[in-house]
Design brief:
single chain, 255 residues, alpha+beta, 5 helices, 7 strands, globular
């Protein structure tokens, strides 16, 4: 039977052929177990995409039925569709765990506007316990796949929220350096110890001993793949004196 949690999509039951030992973790298993785990994830993702598409279609119909003068209703449907789009992005990426990342569908995007919209959409969910600000001196254009960059930034913001105590601030800083643009996500959490700096970008690896924080160690490796597919990079900057972590996303600037 599917397992349902409040605020989460139903999780398909684990297929019979994947039988991890009691208490085992797929991150620590051998290559065979990891292959089986990834196959399960891919199949589950494909199963979930159908219902997500149906919900998106229903929201589209609902949007056409709302009076354009109803600003609250229109805004609510718009927010729901953007949240659903983020969910579909994450599920779609899981569906391609064993395949190459799709070629970015590039378009001219203002990264500042993209970041502010995403932060606004996450204020009531992922970032509910963290004041989050976006700082920039002006628009910062880049030729990127907007949905892929949203998914990447969603991962960085989710990590910042998960690894920071409630009430701490998260800052997104976007800078234009002429030939490239830089986007930093800075938190006030526990930071990453030096020996984990490279390891956190490997699949099924996580930094520190934080069993209370959920995750499989896939987000950062997939985020780095996305950055590199755009001709950029993703790295963890050296630790600051005040603690916390700063992830730096670098992308080519739009002409």
């Amino acid at each position: 039977m599917p397992v349902e949690r409040e605020g989460c999509l139903p999780c398909p039951a684990t297929p019979r052929r994947f039988r991890p030992e009691p208490g085992s973790d797929p991150r620590m298993a051998g290559s065979t177990a990891r292959d089986e785990f990834e196959q399960v994830a891919v199949e589950a993702a494909h199963e979930v995409m159908g219902p997500l598409s149906a919900v998106d279609a229903a929201l589209g119909l609902l949007g056409t039925a709302i009076d354009p003068a109803d600003e609250v209703g229109t805004a609510a449907v718009g927010l729901a569709r953007r949240q659903l789009r983020l969910a579909r992005l994450q599920v779609a990426r899981l569906g391609r765990l064993r395949a190459e990342l799709e070629e970015p569908a590039r378009e001219r995007v203002d990264l500042v506007e993209l970041a502010r919209e995403l932060v606004g959409d996450l204020e009531a969910t992922v970032l509910v316990e963290h004041e989050t600000t976006v700082t920039a001196s002006g628009p910062v254009p880049a030729e990127v796949d907007a949905d892929q960059i949203r998914g990447l930034l969603l991962n960085l913001l989710s990590n910042a929220a998960k690894y920071s105590p409630a009430g701490r601030t998260v800052v997104v800083q976007v800078d234009d350096h002429g030939d490239r643009v830089e986007l930093r996500v800075r938190d006030q959490g526990h930071g990453v110890v030096p020996e984990d700096v490279d390891r956190i970008f490997e699949r099924y690896e996580r930094g520190g001993d934080r069993p209370e924080v959920s995750g499989l160690g896939l987000g950062l490796p997939l985020a780095r793949d996305t950055a590199r597919a755009h001709g950029g990079g993703l790295e963890l900057e050296p630790a600051r004196d005040d603690g916390g972590s700063t992830f730096l996303l670098t992308l080519p600037r739009a002409d």
